[in-house]
Amino acid sequence: MSNELPDSMGPIKILFVEDEAPIQTLVQHNLEAAGFRVEVTDDAETAMERVADNRPHLVILDWMLPGMSGLDLCQWLRDDPAYSYIPVIMLTAKGEEDHRVRGLETGADDYLAKPFSPRELIARITNLLRRSYPELQEEVLRAGDLHLYPGRHQVFCGDDEIRMGPSEFRLLQFLMSHPDQVFERAQLLDRLWGPHAEVEERTVDVHIRRLRQALEPFVSGDLVQTVRGAGYRFAPPASA
Questions:
Q1: Distance in angstroms (rounded) separating the CA atoms of residues 132 and 201
Q2: What are phi and psi of 117, to 5 degrees?
Q3: Residue 3 counted as domain residue
Q4: Is 162 contained in some domain?
Q5: Distance CA 230, CA 43 (A)
């Protein structure tokens, strides 16, 4: 198998392998509050299945697990070319230097001893993701659950990717970049197709309709609004 990245770099998926329920709950709650999508399992064997099925962006491993240890699971990740790119953070009660060294030598990218601060864990995750996936540093446009990733030409609502054509993507990106501003058809043509493009103004209406059709199954409410006699605007949800 070749070394390939996850199918999308949209919502960040983290696999947390830990057999202590209170720590599971604490970490999952804090990471989800920080905007990550978290899957929890309590043994290495199940974690191997989750890695194969869901291809997480990052794995957090407890050293001491029932059956296969976190150290052995880390070694398995590093030995398989299909998963060797996935960054790994080791969590353990073992704070001795030799255990830290063993974890890092096995291929862990970072190491955090229990007890730990959830804020520190989130900071370490963020830094590790930035190092491992430079493309994550791009600016993301957000409006409620709607996330647009300019560099990757992807749009998500929650965990669901919204498929749309390149013209609809450019239109949504421009409107999301200027929330609540009304743009005439001629302005949108000029900004998106260029001042010398031989495109009729009604073309904008066609792409607006297609954009709405793409958003409708995923997004509640009228985000792309028609302002009668004026043009169109993007109206973010009140909670955005």
A1: 44
A2: -90, 130
A3: no
A4: yes
A5: 59
Last residue of a domain, one of 113, 137, 161: 137
What does the pLDDT look like over 71-91, one tens digit per residue? Answer: 899 999 999 888 888 999 998
d(CA 33, CA 64): 26
CA-to-CA distance for 17 and 39, rounded, in angstroms? 9
- The answer to whether 52 and 39 have CB atoms below 8 angstroms apart is no
Mean pLDDT across the stretch 1-8? 40
Greatest C-alpha distance within the chain? 72
| Average confidence (pLDDT) over 55-62 | 93
Residue 21 one-letter amino acid: A
Of 115, 137, 159, which one is at a domain's C-terminal end? 137
Closest CA to 209 of 226, 192, 195, 227: 226
161 or 220, higher pLDDT: 161
Residue 172 has pLDDT above 90, yes or no: yes
**What mean pLDDT value characterizes the chain?**
85
d(CA 34, CA 47): 22
Between the CA of residue 167 and those of 19, 95, 102, 134, 196, what are the distances in Å? 48, 54, 51, 26, 17
